[in-house]
């Protein structure tokens, strides 16, 4: 099949094994014309969407983390908050669209499947997961690149979406919200940490409403997750990344020795089986090692023989380290920010959530003083997000969306004071592939 517009790359659902993710063994090389004809093929196609998410998640994490002040290239450690170009920015642009296209096949075809054994409840589950995954894909796109081309039907040929222009960020967010509403209606309120369900929708909605500054809704949806007994801040901190599907996890991508996550090779030294592509930035390492800031979060790090510090969050050399899409600590920090930022600020409630996260890592609590301001509390939350969620693709987005990019990133690289550089460039290969796709200003 020819290369498609909008960097969709593969119009069909070319599936690879993801059996440990969903306990389903997908069929290989299913044609796009007949991929979804019954209950079995619908679920097989859904496995393919999760597999595509596995395919881009780490690329997006490292793309936005390298753009921040948490991570540097090992061979260029002084180039913190570097200038970005369409040739080097990364972020997984085309791979995200591949996942979206596969979700589109499900959304488009499942309602019309004629199979008496495919119950409405089962259809709702498959459709709800597809809507959730498409929303996640577009949220990862808009946070990284700004408004993007909205593709809501499957690509069945090279010119299917010819002429599709980029939507605005607001239009992209509106589509994400609509997809999440659909997912919330279709999915059940059950705890499953490796498949989308209503709790993962609640958690992603909390993040979504934080990005668009709807604080009342962000607080409401974060509270829905926090209130459930199936989720809690595990202790010690290292439990969440050394144990699969712990109570910390709301939605994670799990891997195994047969379905390997190669992300460890980017972070570990050759002595531990890696390539040492990236390491935590020196200044940030000092914060993680500070008992009053990082506390037990220093367990993310391992000192190498030459004295540098490696990230071991993804460090299982058998490839079985999980990637965390949603976890409960983020929900506490979302609710803290929402409580501090809403029309009638609740600074006591905000600090209670902030201190719950700090207590888990044995970090001293912050006291609410009579002179505390909303801005001071939100700066504390921003810093706590940096320490709590440091290598999960949040830092760059958090600094930009809170309006601190010019001050924080600009102090390191003056070019980042320019708001045009508060999103990443569209990769050059995608621009060259699609004549309807225009580059972000400044790049």
TrEMBL record:
Record flagged with keyword Ribosomal protein: no
Domain SusD-like N-terminal as annotated: residue spans: 22-207
Top-level taxon in the UniProt lineage: Bacteria
InterPro entries attached to this UniProt entry: SusD-like_N, SusD_RagB_dom, TPR-like_helical_dom_sf
Signal peptide interval: 1-22
Cell location: Cell outer membrane
Keyword match Metal-binding: no
Keywords, sorted A to Z: Cell outer membrane, Membrane, Signal
Domain RagB/SusD: 314-443
UniProt record similarity statement: Belongs to the SusD family.
Protein name: Membrane protein
Species in which this protein is naturally found: Dyadobacter beijingensis
């Amino acid at each position: 099949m020819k290369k498609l517009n909008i960097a969709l790359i593969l119009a069909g659902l070319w599936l690879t094994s993801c059996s440990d993710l969903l306990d389903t063994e997908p069929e290989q090389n299913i044609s796009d014309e007949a991929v979804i004809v019954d209950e079995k093929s619908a679920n097989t196609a859904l496995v393919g969407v999760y597999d595509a998410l596995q395919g881009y998640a780490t690329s997006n994490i490292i793309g936005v983390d390298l753009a921040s002040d948490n991570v540097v290239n090992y061979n260029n450690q002084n180039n913190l908050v570097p200038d970005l170009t369409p040739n080097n920015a990364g972020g997984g642009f085309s791979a995200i669209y591949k996942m979206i296209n596969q979700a589109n096949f499900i959304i488009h075809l499942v309602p019309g499947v004629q199979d008496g054994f495919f119950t409405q409840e089962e259809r709702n589950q498959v459709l709800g997961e597809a809507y959730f995954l498409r929303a996640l894909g577009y949220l990862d796109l808009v946070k990284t690149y700004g408004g993007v081309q909205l593709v809501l039907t499957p690509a069945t040929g090279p010119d299917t979406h010819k002429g599709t222009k980029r939507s605005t960020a607001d239009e992209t967010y509106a589509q994400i919200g609509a997809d999440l509403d659909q997912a919330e209606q279709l999915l059940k309120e059950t705890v499953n940490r490796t498949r989308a369900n209503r709790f993962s929708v609640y958690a992603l909605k909390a993040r979504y409403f934080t990005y668009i500054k709807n604080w009342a809704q962000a607080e409401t949806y974060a509270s829905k997750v926090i209130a459930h007994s199936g989720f809690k801040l595990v202790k010690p901190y290292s439990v969440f990344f050394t144990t699969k599907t712990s109570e910390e996890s709301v939605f994670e991508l799990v891997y195994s020795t047969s379905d390997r996550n190669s992300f460890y090779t980017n972070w570990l030294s050759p002595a531990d089986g890696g390539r040492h592509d990236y390491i935590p930035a020196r200044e940030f390492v000092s914060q993680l090692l500070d008992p009053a800031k990082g506390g037990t979060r220093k367990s993310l790090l391992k000192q190498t023989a030459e004295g540098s510090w490696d990230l071991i969050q993804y460090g299982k050399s058998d490839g079985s380290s999980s990637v965390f899409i949603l976890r409960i600590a983020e929900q506490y920090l979302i609710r803290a920010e929402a409580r501090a930022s809403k029309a009638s600020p609740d600074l006591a409630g905000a600090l209670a959530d902030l201190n719950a996260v700090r207590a888990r890592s044995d970090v001293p609590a912050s006291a609410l003083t009579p002179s505390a301001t909303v801005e001071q509390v939100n700066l504390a939350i921003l810093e706590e997000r940096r320490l709590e969620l440091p290598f999960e693709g949040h830092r760059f987005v958090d600094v930009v969306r809170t309006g601190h990019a010019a001050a924080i990133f600009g102090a390191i690289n003056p070019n980042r004071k320019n708001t045009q550089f508060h999103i990443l460039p569209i990769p050059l290969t995608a621009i060259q592939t699609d004549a309807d796709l225009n580059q972000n200003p400044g790049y």
